[in-house]
Each structure stands twice: as structure tokens, then as C-alpha cells.
Amino acid sequence: MDFFDTRCQSGPYTQEAFGVRDDRPGQMAYVDTNPENAAQKWIAEVRNVTQTAVTFTAVDGCVIESSAERGRGRCDAMLTTARSLFLLELKDRKGRGDWRTHGFDQLESTIRFLIEHHANQLKQFTKKKAHVCNRRVSNFVEIEQEHKRRFKKYGFRIDTQAKVVIDS
Hints:
The chain is α/β, with parallel strands linked by helices. It has helices spanning 38-41, 99-122, 145-152; strands at residues 9-13, 17-21, 30-32, 44-47, 54-58, 77-80, 84-91, 127-134, 157-159, 163-165. It starts with 8 loop residues before the first strand and ends with a strand.
């Protein structure tokens, strides 16, 4: 399992804004650079005002094949810069439901995979953040302290909004 396998990557992307989509059944998430699709198609919007080089990695369906690691969750995608790593779990659901809890579980499982397979490489990233992105829910959803502590023990911050801000 190689989270830095170039076969699962695309980019680098330097646009000020681009989207991440996961709307092709049975296929992996992907980047969409067409701003006309932002409102209706992007599940996550990546804001990159510094135009930093961002590499996209498809986790579910590429780094971790669909048939591999049955019973263990995995997130949809990873974004990396020279100093930052973002994990993205993409949801496209209305209502309160348990989409957040399910997303947190998938992200935590992915972080454990990363630590198991890339503990040394993770040290190069000074910013590590995990996002549950749901474009159908308001931009800000407060996260309980227990969830913040859950991810802090791995060195990650957690967020539940569809906007990912690249600042380095």
C-alpha cells in the first residue's frame, strides 16, 4: 500500500480554485478544474490563493483497491503540498444523519494506514488535516472536543466543511 504511488496521482494543480468530485459509480475520486462545475458538481472546493503546487492522490479505488482491506474504511482522496497533507472524505448527502460519524471513522482508518505504511514520510508534513466534505450541508459544522482529541493523537486536525484551504 503506497500512498505516494504516482499511478494514483494527478497534478500538480496550481489553480486558485479547483474541485474534487466522486460522482462516477465504481470509479475513484478526481479533480475538476472547470469553475463552471463548482456549484453543482464539486463536493470539495480547494482554495489555493497562493497557487502552491498541489498533488491529488486517489485513495479509495487506487492506493487501496476496492477489494483490499475489507472491513476497514478508507477516505476518498489525499492532497499534498511540500509541507501539507489533507485527507478528504467526500459525502453528498442531505440531512443530519450519521454522515459525519461515518466520515470520521473512514478518515481515522486511513490515518492508521498512513502511519502503518509511511510513518517516516508523514514527518515531512508540518500541517496535517482531515476533512469530511459534504457540499449539501452549510459550510460550518461545529466539531465536538472528543472528535478533535480523537484526531489530535495522530497529529491531525479535523474539519467538516467542503472548502479546503491551501495556505502553503
